[in-house]
Amino acid sequence: MPPAATTTTPTQPPPFSSQPLLRSLAATSTPARLSVLRAVFIVLAVIFAVVGAFGVNQRAKAIRDVRNASAHLLALQDIQVRIVHADAIASSSYLRSGQEDPAQRTAYLDEIAKAGDGLVAVSAAAGAADLEQLSEASRLLGSYVGLVEQARANNRQGFPVGATYQRQANGIVTNSDPETPDIVSSLRQTEASQRSQINRSLATAHRAGVWLHLSGWLLFVSLVVGSWWMWRTFRRIVNVPIAIALLVLFLLLLIGGTKQAGAVSDADSAVGNQLSAADDAAQARAAAFEAQSQEALTLINRGNGAANEANWQLGNDVVTKELDSGIRSDEGVLTDARSAYKSYRIAHSEIRKLDDGGNWDAAVTVSLGAQDASSGVNAVKVFDEFDQAVGQIATTEGTNASVHLGDAVSPMGTLRNVVFVIGLLVGVLAALGCGQRLKEYR
Amino acid sequence: MSRHRPALLSLALGSLVVAACSGAVRLPAAIEGEAPPTTTAVTPAAPTCSPPEAALNPQRSYEPQGPLPSPDKLPTNSTMAEIRIRDKLIVGVSGDTLLFGARNPLKNQIEGFDIDMLKEVAKAIFGPDGESHITYKVITYADRLPNLEAGPDNGGVDIVAHTMTINCNRWLRIAFSSTYFDAGQRVLVKKGSGFESIDELNAGKATVCAPEGSTNIDLLRRNEGNRFGQLVVLAKPDVTDCLVAMQQGEADGATGDDTVLAGLAAQDPNTEVVGDKFTDEPYGLGMAKDKIDFVQFVNGVIAEMRTDGRWSDIYSKWLVGVLSDTVIDPPPAIYGREVPAP
Fold it and tell me: Do residues B205 and B284 make contact, with C-beta atoms less than 8 angstroms apart?
């Protein structure tokens, strides 16, 4: 004989909303309402398990995308730096003519080889839009190498036409004509696409957090409202399984939510600090090599180098902006970079003064570092010091960004599984809680 | 329970808001460089000769005043004496015109016909070691006249030897020596191309390259008498770009002064200078307009070079086998320009 009818005195259920469905539900018997409530709990719990796990997974995937795009961006910048460095070496070597430094030649070949390998590697992981730009960069790199060799061959025979080939080669690396393709523009377009990808993925990671909270708090509120109704109906303060479900769910939303928010916060920090510093340092380095190349070309194009000096100013402007306010990194290394670059700028001013004053030979000697500037600065030495400092920032911060993004994503797999299992567990506990009351009617 | 509902709802809503609305960090776009603003000086229009002036022979220069003085007996207070006291002759030259003024990377020296002319002027002022007193300033075509107008005390030069054609309009700004070389516009073609002149290139509708802004490309574009109407004219920044355009198959030929084309042909044995001159380009050494004593002195140096064989030696050193098979006669001196009243 079912005890429910005699041992409980269900009170008049509170007036529900005027919705027809709820009115019809209010008109049904208490066991039927309990069965509906149990079904609602189970459905919401399954939704939470699936949607919550999906949300965590989405956030993890988005952070992984940030990490991949960051690695891609840093790889592209490495290629860009290698190519402009190679061009700076080739331009300086041209000034040395027959007295080409074998170590410089080796460094040039090494940079070109590594840039070529890098292009192959990044192309393998590139999307269709980026692939077009990377193919263009590869094609142009081949042309560049050919022109440098022609410049070198002519220069070694004492033919001034070599300077024209060197100028053409530099125009393939970078030029200001939007109609004429160049390697740096192709790479920068691909880099811009990676920056967009990083920003999109980071925004996705932020948005993905809503699924866990939306489905979790909906389930939590449903359990609270259901418990309140059961308390009103059966006058029992505690339904143990549902209370455990509420506690577990609350802890999951609190701890899991915090963990999830921490992951995206770590990703924000990695992008906003380490990756940004590596990005800025790489830009400064590439711009500095472009400037160094233009300094040599100004001297190569004796008397006709005004356009090259204007390009030097462009590169110098980027480096100055980055050093003054762009790069945020270890202050000690940054101070070294600023100090070295300031010295290089002084040496460059003297080189220009010597050349403009008709003392071309002395300008070349100072530019090649064979002789110190009158200020006592060795142009090549201080430039190398600047490059080492900025290169150190780029490498260190790039590695840190990758490590931090990896750390951010690593707990997310476990969290996804926990959300799924606990979602189902809450469903089971809620069903058990409702079942206990239903048993009282049997 | 109802007491806790607002708190729970607040917590839930707060979590949702934090989860959905917290702004992501953004990686900024790459920094673009900006060149400092440049002030463009307003260049006054170049003066032009009146029709009566233009009708006169522009090659007329100032006649030397008697025999050339020895270096240690230069007239007191003359421009030459000032240069000797200064201990250096500042010259404006080309750095990339092979055979006339180009850096030899193996010797790390500027050399060529124009440079040797300047060395003779320096010897006349300083003696046998004159060339060690020369300070070279490599300048562009466009900087030739401004450097003479500025003068050596203002960053300019004493004298320019830079394949510079004597013409009436330039005489209004600077002074020229007597003609030291008779150049003319010709064409450079690939050996075995079958083209032997500018007219054959025109008939073959060939692509001919010339430096943008040069008198050479102006001539093709003016197309007087429709002589060049069939040519495809390719403009390049510099004449050496035209040689590269030919080597890369972009042009069938290049046009310019035969002196300059000879320098290009010397850099590529697969090319040759062909056809007759279709313009006259008499070269003179440029000096400041008011340094007439210096012009007369330099004309005396060139006059001696014409007769004592030094001009022929220089021609033989640089141009025999390139512009001609044997040494040619130097261009005759033309004087008769009146010295302006002080």
Answer: no
Ranges of beta strands (E only) in chain B are 89-93, 96-97, 101-104, 109-111, 134-138, 159-161, 174-176, 181-183, 185-190, 207-211, 232-236, 253-257, 271-274, 281-283, 286-288
Per-residue tokens: B263: 């320098």
Q: How far is A20 from chain B (nearest CA, A)?
A: 25
> Which of A276, A356, A361 is opposite residue B27, by nearest beta carbon?
A276
Query: Which residues of chain A are within 8 Å of residue B8 when distances are taken between CB atoms?
Result: 220-221, 224
Residue A429 has pLDDT above 50, yes or no: yes
Q: How many CB pairs under 8 A join A and B?
A: 162
* Cβ–Cβ gap A195/B27 under 8 Å: yes
Contact between B15 and A213 using a beta-carbon 8 Å cutoff: yes
- Asked if residue A140 lies in contact with residue A169, where contact means CB atoms within 8 angstroms, the answer is no
Listed in sequence order, the residues at least 6 apart from A350 whose beta carbon sits closer than 8 Å to its beta carbon are: A366, A373, A374, A375
Q: Of chain A residues 219-278, which have a CB less than 8 A from chain B?
A: 220-221, 224, 227-228, 231, 253, 257, 260-261, 264, 268-269, 271-272, 275-276
Chain A interface, mutation test: which of B4, B9, B13, B27, most A Cβ atoms within 10 Å?
A: B27
C-alpha–C-alpha distance, residues B103 and B99, integer Å: 10
C-alpha span between A155 and B96 (Å, rounded): 12
- Answer whether A210 touches B (CB < 8 Å): yes
Which residue in chain B is spatially nearest to A196 when comparing CA positions?
B27
Virtual torsion, Cα A5, A6, A12, A13, nearest 10 deg: -50
Element (H, E) at A390: helix A379-409
Residue of chain B whose alpha carbon sits nearest to that of A176: B33
Tokens standing for A131? 């692939």
Inter-chain CB proximity B244 and A165 less than 8 Å: yes
- CA–CA distance from B225 to each of A157, B182, B219, B234, B276 (Å)? 42, 25, 11, 20, 18
CB contact (8 A) between residue A302 and residue B138 = yes
Can you name the residues that pair with B271 across neighbouring β-strands?
B190
Helix, strand, coil fractions of chain A, as percent rounded to 5: 85, 0, 15
**Which tokens sit at B199?**
């007219």
Tell me the per-residue pLDDT of A189-232, one tens digit each, with 9 for 90 and over: 999 999 999 999 999 999 998 999 999 999 999 999 999 988 88
Q: For B213, left (φ over 0), alpha (ψ -120 to 50), or beta? A: left
Q: A264 CB contacts (<8 Å, ≥6 apart)? A: A59, A63, A202, A205, A206, A209, A408, B22, B24
Spatial CA neighbour of B158 closest among B101, B100, B64, B79? B79
Model pLDDT for residues A248-303, shown as the tens digit of each residue = 999 999 999 999 899 999 999 999 999 999 999 999 999 999 999 999 988 887 76
3-state helix, strand, coil in chain B (%, to 5): 35, 20, 45
A213 touches chain B (CB under 8 A): yes
CB contact under 8 A, A191 and B30: yes
> ipTM of this model?
0.77
